[in-house]
Write a structure and sequence with these properties.
By secondary structure, the chain is mainly α. The protein contains three helices and no strands. The two termini are 15 Å apart.
Length: 63
């Protein structure tokens, strides 16, 4: 959340939950890193794993 919320609100993040698989989220996070998101390789893997495990409406972060 630290790296994602610099540019995106929870609404944008939540809109993608449940729509992408691990490969899809890895590509999205990779683009974020290319555009300046500050993530180590370990943090990137953790972020992708967390995103894959979430479903639409999960709290947190979704309203």
């Amino acid at each position: 959340m630290r790296a994602c919320r610099v540019c995106h609100g929870a609404d944008r993040l939540c809109a993608g939950l449940g729509r992408l698989d691990e490969k899809g989220w890895d590509e999205v996070v990779g683009r974020m890193v290319t555009h300046g998101a500050s993530l180590t390789a370990e943090e990137r893997n953790l972020a992708v794993g967390w995103l894959v495990s979430r479903k639409p409406g999960d709290k947190p972060p979704c309203p």
